[in-house]
From TrEMBL:
PANTHER family, alphabetized: DIPEPTIDE TRANSPORT ATP-BINDING PROTEIN DPPD, OLIGOPEPTIDE TRANSPORT ATP-BINDING PROTEIN APPD
UniProt similarity note: Belongs to the binding-protein-dependent transport system permease family. Belongs to the ABC transporter superfamily.
Compartments where found: Cell membrane; Membrane
Entry keyword annotation includes Transmembrane: yes
Chief place of localization: membrane
Pfam families documented for this protein: ABC_tran, BPD_transp_1, oligo_HPY
Descriptive protein name: Dipeptide/oligopeptide/nickel ABC transporter permease/ATP-binding protein
Keyword Flavoprotein appears in the UniProt entry: no
Organism: Streptomyces drozdowiczii
Stretches the record annotates as Disordered: 276-299
Entry keyword set: ATP-binding, Cell membrane, Membrane, Nucleotide-binding, Transmembrane, Transmembrane helix, Transport
Domain of life, per lineage: Bacteria
SMART domains, per the entry: AAA
Length: 629
C-alpha cells in the first residue's frame, strides 16, 4: 500500500518513519544481540565509566550498560503499549456506550467519567501501583486504570456526534441491539481520532511506566527497563553522568517518536477531511411516553394515531410542536403530509417511529401499528415490532447511511438480526432489493460516498424493503434531488406500494409533488392538522384558508411574470406563545373575533374531508389541477 501523497512529501513524516523503524529494530534485535552481554557480570569492571570496551560504562556488577539499555527497549516499549491498549479499550467502551444506552445509564456513566477525571492520572497510577503491589503486572494495571477516564471522555464526546446522525437513527428503526449499534455504527465512525489519541498516549504511558520503575513501583529486579536503569545510574550522576543520562535519552527518543507519529497521522487525517465522518445533528435519545395507547383496532388500518402530542424542553420552557394530531393509513394507501417548515411533520413521524430527541415527552390516546397497541408492549417488544413493521426513509441519505460500512452490510443486518437469515440468504435478499429499486447488485460492495444522491436514496428505500414493512415513512426523500431523480423516486414508491401493499406516509413541503401521486393529503400548521382531504379535491375543494394559499403558492409557468409570485404573508406563531384560538388567525384574511378566542375542531365534512376552521372557504366553481412548473 502506497503512502498518501501528503506523507510522501513531508520531511517530518520521513523522519518519524525512520525513528519508528529504528525503535522496532531495536526492540526486536536488542535482546537477540545484546542480551547475553547485558546479563554477564564482570567483577573486574564494576562501576566503570565510559570506555572503548564499555561506551556507556558498567553497573555495580560490571554489566555493560549500553547492552542493558538496548535490551531494555523491548520490555519498556511492550509494557507501555500494553498499558495504553488496556486503558484505551476499557475507556473507549465506557465512553462510546453512552451513544446507545438509555438516558439514566448515560447520565450515570457521564457522572462516573467526570468524577474519575477529577483525580490526576499520575497520582492515581502511583496509588494503584501501591495497592496492586510493586511489580510489572501491578504497574501496567495501575497505568491502564489511570488512563481509562481520559479515553472515556474522548470517546464520549466523539460518540455524542455520532449519536445524532440519521444512520444511527435508521439503525434504531431496524431494531438492532446495543452491541451491534456500538460495534458497527458508533466505533467505526470514531476510530480514527481514537487511534491518533492512542498513538500519542503511548509516549506518555512510556514515560509514566518508566517513572513508576524509577520509584521502585514498576519492573523489579532481576528484570529491568529504562526507568530502573535511570534510577540505578542516578547515584553516580556527578561522578559519571553518562550512565545516568543514557537511559533517559533512550526514553526521550522513544517518547518523542510516538508524539511525532501522532502529529504526522493527525496532519494526514486533517488533509483528507474531518475525523468524524458525519457531524452530529440531533440527539437520538428518546423520552418516555406519558400515556398508554388505547382504543379499538380498525380492520385494514396499518397505522392509527389519535391525540398525538409532543412536548420538547427548552431553556425558555416546554414547547408543544405537535398538538393533538390524529391520522390513519390503510393498507396500500399513499398519504401526503404537507405544511411549511416547522409545522411538526417530521416530529410526528419521529414520534410514531419512537425516535424523538432526548428529553421529548409523548402523549397519545391511540397509537397502533399493524393492529398492535404499541403502548401495551415492553420496550424490547416495541423495538422489534417497529423494526419489522415500519421503515423510515430520511431526508438526507448521505447522513442516513453509515459511511464506514459497505452497502451490503447495511442492507443485510436487519434481516439477519430479526428474520434469522444466514449471511448468504441475506445477501441474496439484498441483491434482489437493489434490483427492485433499479440498482445493480454489484453496489453491495460499495460504500455510500461512492454513490450519487439518487443512488443513495434508492439504497435507503431498498434497506426499508428488506424487512417487508407494512408502513413506509418517507420524510422529504426528494428534497435534495434534482427534478428528474425526484420523479424516479416517486414512481419507485408507487411501484413498491403496488407490489407490496405497504402503506406510505409521504412527508413534503411540495404540494404539487404530493398532489401528483398521493391519494389523500393531510395539511399541518403550527403542530396541528388543519385539513384532511382526498387529493382530487385539493385544487378545487380545499376549504381551509391555509391550504388554499399553499395551493396558490405553487409556481406556474402561465402566471403573469410582471407580478410577484403568490406567498403566504406573515410567519407561523411562536411555539412558546401559541394563541388560544386558531393558530392561523394572525395570517388569515377571513379572521373574525371567534377565531382569536377558540381553536376550531377538525370537523368531518363527509367524503373523507375534514377541516379545522370556523369559517371555511366555499368550493371554487372551476376545478383546477395542482402542478409544478
Amino acid at each position: 500500500m502506497s503512502l498518501p501523497a501528503g506523507l510522501r512529501r513531508s520531511p517530518m513524516a520521513w523522519i518519524t518513519g525512520f525513528m519508528l523503524a529504528s525503535l522496532v529494530v531495536l526492540a526486536v534485535a536488542g535482546p537477540l544481540f545484546c542480551g547475553a552481554a547485558a546479563d554477564r557480570p564482570d567483577p573486574s569492571a564494576v562501576l566503570q565509566g565510559p570506555s572503548a570496551a564499555h561506551p556507556v560504562g558498567t553497573d555495580g556488577l560490571g554489566r555493560d550498560l549500553l547492552a542493558r539499555i538496548l535490551t531494555a527497549a523491548r520490555p519498556s516499549l511492550l509494557l507501555a503499549l500494553a498499558a495504553v491498549l488496556l486503558g484505551a479499550t476499557a475507556g473507549v467502551l465506557l465512553g462510546a456506550c453512552t451513544a446507545v444506552v438509555g438516558r439514566r445509564v448515560r447520565r450515570l456513566v457521564a457522572g462516573l467519567i467526570s468524577l474519575l477525571l477529577a483525580f490526576p492520572a499520575l497520582l492515581v497510577a502511583m496509588f494503584l501501583a501501591v495497592v496492586f503491589g510493586a511489580g510489572t503486572a501491578g504497574a501496567v494495571a495501575a497505568l491502564a486504570a489511570a488512563s481509562v477516564p481520559g479515553f472515556a471522555r474522548l470517546a464520549q464526546t466523539l460518540a455524542a456526534g455520532v449519536a445524532g446522525t440519521d444512520h444511527l437513527a435508521a439503525a434504531r428503526v431496524l431494531g438492532l441491539g446495543r452491541l451491534r449499534l456500538l460495534g458497527r455504527h458508533v466505533l467505526p465512525n470514531i476510530a480514527e481520532p481514537l487511534l491518533l489519541s492512542v498513538t500519542t498516549a503511548a509516549g506518555t504511558a512510556l514515560v509514566a511506566l518508566s517513572g513508576l520503575s524509577f520509584l521502585g513501583l514498576g519492573v523489579q529486579p532481576p528484570g529491568y527497563d529504562w526507568g530502573q536503569l535511570l534510577s540505578q545510574g542516578l547515584d553516580r550522576i556527578y561522578a559519571a553522568p553518562l550512565p545516568a543520562l543514557a537511559p533517559g535519552l533512550a526514553l526521550l527518543y522513544a517518547a518523542l517518536t510516538f508524539q511525532l507519529l501522532g502529529e504526522v497521522l493527525a496532519g494526514s487525517a486533517a488533509r483528507r477531511g474531518p475525523l468524524a465522518h458525519i457531524p452530529g445533528q440531533r440527539s437520538a435519545s428518546r423520552g418516555p411516553a406519558e400515556e398508554r395507547s388505547g382504543g379499538p383496532a380498525e380492520e385494514g388500518q396499518v397505522l392509527q394515531v389519535d391525540g398525538l402530542t409532543v412536548e420538547l424542553p427548552t431553556p425558555a420552557g416546554p414547547v408543544r410542536p405537535v398538538r393533538g394530531v390524529s391520522l390513519s393509513l390503510g393498507r396500500g394507501e399513499i398519504v401526503g403530509l404537507v405544511g411549511e417548515s416547522g409545522s411538526g411533520k417530521s416530529l410526528t413521524a419521529l414520534a410514531v417511529a419512537d425516535l424523538l430527541p432526548y428529553g421529548a415527552r409523548v402523549s397519545r390516546r391511540t397509537l397502533r401499528l399493524l393492529g398492535t397497541d404499541l403502548g401495551a408492549l415492553t420496550r424490547k417488544e416495541r423495538d422489534r415490532h417497529l423494526a419489522t413493521g415500519l421503515s423510515m426513509i430520511f431526508q438526507n441519505p448521505a447522513s442516513a447511511l453509515n459511511p464506514s460500512l459497505r452497502i451490503g452490510t447495511q442492507l443485510t443486518e436487519a434481516v439477519r438480526a430479526h428474520r434469522g437469515a444466514s449471511r448468504a440468504e441475506a445477501t441474496a435478499q439484498a441483491a434482489e432489493a437493489l434490483r427492485r429499486v433499479g440498482l445493480p447488485p454489484s453496489l453491495l460492495r460499495s460504500r455510500p460516498y461512492e454513490l450519487s444522491g439518487g443512488q443513495r436514496q434508492r439504497v435507503m428505500i431498498a434497506a426499508g424493503l428488506m424487512v417487508r414493512p407494512g408502513l413506509i415513512i418517507a420524510d422529504e426523500p426528494t428534497t435534495a434531488l434534482d427534478v428528474t431523480v425526484q420523479r424516479q423516486i416517486t414512481r419507485l414508491l408507487v411501484d413498491i406500494r403496488r407490489d407490496t401493499s405497504a402503506a406510505i406516509l409521504f412527508i413534503s413541503h411540495d404540494v404539487a409533488l404530493v398532489a401528483e401521486f398521493c391519494e389523500r393529503v393531510l395539511v399541518m400548521y403550527a403542530g396541528t392538522l388543519v385539513e384532511a382531504l382526498p387529493v382530487g379535491r385539493l385544487a378545487a375543494s380545499a376549504r381551509h384558508p391555509y391550504t388554499r394559499q399553499l395551493v396558490a403558492s405553487v409556481p406556474d409557468l402561465t402566471a403573469d411574470r410582471d407580478r410577484p409570485l403568490p406567498t403566504i404573508e406573515g410567519a407561523p406563531p411562536d411555539p412558546l406563545a401559541l394563541p388560544t384560538g386558531c393558530a392561523f388567525e394572525a395570517r388569515c384574511p377571513r379572521r373574525r373575533d371567534r377565531c382569536a378566542e377558540q381553536a376550531p375542531p377538525l370537523d368531518d365534512l363527509g367524503t373523507g374531508h375534514r377541516v379545522a376552521c370556523w369559517y371555511p372557504l366555499p368550493v371554487t366553481a372551476a376545478p383546477e389541477t395542482v402542478t409544478a412548473s
